[in-house]
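Sequence and fold:
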Amino acid sequence: MMKRSLLFFSLFGIGIFFAQAVQAAQVSLQAPQENISLGDTVLVSVVVDSDHLPMNAIEADVHYPGDLFVLEDISIGQSFLQLWPEPPLHQPATHTVHFVGGIPGGTYAFHATVLQMTLRAIKVGEARFTVPKELAAVYMHNGEGSRLPLTTQALDINVIQSPAYQVTVYSPTHPDQDTWYTERDVVLTWEPRANALYSYSFSQNAEKQPDELPDDASGFVEYDNQEDGIYYFTLLERTSGDDWRQVARYRVQIDATPPEPFEIISTKEADEFSGKAVISFQSIDRTSGIDRYDVIEGGQRSINVRSPYLLVDQERSDVVRVEAYDLAGNIQTAELAALPQAWYQVLPWYFWVLLLLVAILLLWHYRLRRKQKHAKEISSH
């Protein structure tokens, strides 16, 4: 697996550059909360710090406790990495996610997000998420080809029984906490209890808590024109004679921006595609991540394709369009112009039908004239 990763980055021309160094990079796992109720989801982030040294690639395995959690989604939308030889690979049998990614030209990583995993708690217990050090590597961008010294940091999460009393928060604008939406205006509602006070916060900072000052207790709140990102709505409640306590937490995911513009590169692959015409493409979406690519050749659409893509029309007689979709449904389109065609290749089919009909008509007329001439010669004798 490591050899394939190194080959990939060398083929893309960025190399895997390293030198002997005493600094240590760190790969850690982070989540917005240490406790999670049974049945709820948690967003676990893989974060890297290159310790003030330029890095250009990373690979690792993330192990999650499969008896307590199920993995529902892996997202690279908010990753600082730009090159992925293949999507992160989920291995359900070992409860592991393997990934390899890089960034052209290298960069300094300070608390940089590599990927995010959405997991749902299915059993009460103490869960530990780990990055095995022997299976992880962070590569330095300086021309030597060796790894940075590395430390890893695990993540502990307690799965607890749901509290006896919870408030159910609902969003008509963003009804699924695990789905990305293009809507920037957020509406949140809940059923308030009589004589209860409520304090709440809405922030991209997962650790932000309400200020414990009473807010509007109508059970309706609206946040307009929010920027792209992941938001957390935290709701505190206080009843007569009690202290403030958290009764709800709701996640909202917004991405109203299309993937970044990209180009289509046309080549002929001698090895994998036997010298046939293929196209290569890659866009980046820094919020929700790329969901899929569609290729349109003339009137034919190929859905959910991978790059490189073998063209159906090897002559490229029509414009080729590639549509990049992110997880929120935003689209970015790139086009590749058609190749110049010989004059007889660009004529429509009905031209040839008409030409054939004219030829038949001329032939019929010619034979009719000959027949009439022959009959006239006979009659003259």
